[in-house]
User: What shape does this take?
Amino acid sequence: VTPRIVILEPSRSNPDRDGGSRAVADLLDVLDRDGWQVESIALDEVDDRGALLERLNDPNLVVVSSRPEAGIFTASSWLDQPFKVFLGHDLHHRRLGRWRDAVWGTGPETDSDTGPDTAPDTGPDEIADQVPDDAVINRMHRLERRCWQGHDVSLYPDRDEADVVNLELGEDRAMRFPYFVVEPQPESPDLDRARPDATDLAAAGSGSSGPATSFVFIGGSRHAPNRDGVRWFVRDVLPTWGGRLQVIGDWSAEARAEFEGQASIEFSGPVSDEALRAIARAADWAIAPLRFGAGVKRKVLHYLQLGLPMIATPVAIEGLPRPLPTAALIVAPPREWATTSLATDGGLAPRPESARYLRQHFSRFVLRDAWLSVLARRSKPSCPPLDQDPRS
Amino acid sequence: VTLSPPALRINEPDVTADFSDDDAVLINLRNGRYYRVEGPGLRALRALSEAPAHELIVVEDVARPELERFARLLVDRHLLAGDVEQCRFGPLGDSESGGQTLDLEEYGDLEDLLGLDPIHDVEPMKGWPVRASDA
Assistant: This one.
């Protein structure tokens, strides 16, 4: 019997606003196209969750809990009949820990290639106030562990994150799952062009003559890694490289105020698809200056989709399947950005290679096959409800 | 010696409780509300949910009226089930006031509980990126 699928979310998806919702929308779209019977439920719209649980306790159901809030709901319940899948999106406690470390310059990753290596940057007080402390991070870790224990399988976009879960649980209960469908855009002569050969901005310096190099960043200010990354790039890198940064996305007036009077940065706000393509045609480089975070960063896939070459931190490309499209991508730890030569492999056109990469790893067919691999685990005995009282 | 069952217990299966050394998080699965207790509140929750009926319940540094108020609050929130009248709160003979206050933190959702900035990346451009089906 083909199982029915129920996707539980904390609140109604808004795929135009956040990457997690986009991932759920992509999954729904693929399942719907393939003829699965799928229902999406927003928990904050449910008056009686107990009644919902009774309805969900059906052996012919696959319950997909998206994000820790829905995961906690399912994992803490008495559901013992359906096959339970947890969409973790990323290891939240790991991302929060990296945020703390990036701001305070603490933690074991400070000296590694992937960790923050610039001076502690608390930024405006209102940002520092939001940085999670150890108690919050530990609580999140505890809640995530409960989600893993209470589901038959947990899905993460990064193989390493799935390995972390399996190691912690001591059993094979987590899998890598592609999450996103990012189809290449149609061929375009403008975007298919080869990029100029090596652009050694570090050598040229900010006093270089000729047209200023244009950089583009996509992402809103509500997401802490975005705000930290733009602040760091403008403060520590752009003065060396020269050029201008165009920021696309929703930045609050308060977030923009931090950069007031700086001519090298321009906030364009949300833009249309057409305007974004025009910006991509005119831009020299995309940047992904993320100093912390977790999971696969959708913005990096967006840059590949647009055919833009990019420079990224190791954190930004974390979890992307290898090999990476080298014509489109330079990866450097934050401390090396200012001295990095912006040259991709042999002046190749980045877009065709990016398109091949996206088709190979982020097509809807890849997502469908991954989903079938998840369902193959239904043949194993289902996960019993967690003990309701961990003390016993 | 046969002990009576507890007068109060975690209201399972509608409520789930996750205890650690530092705090306990309780979730009411009926309405999705989260609760957290720590310090003396954690000690009180443990004592209330474990003490056999009619056994004296004593929580260090907590006055009897405060402990009783806390028990009734937990029952009112449907976090504990049972009959408060079967509880014997102590310490008897001590001052009826003073001591520590027992707090129950209540949250509307998980992000409130954790006090976090929005968790997921925000891509605020309406209509973008375009899915293949929309193009």
Notes: The longest strand of chain B covers residues 23-28. Helices of chain B lie at 40-50, 64-76, 110-114. Confidence is low (pLDDT under 50) at residues 117-135 of chain B. Residues 64-76 of chain B form the longest helix (13 residues).
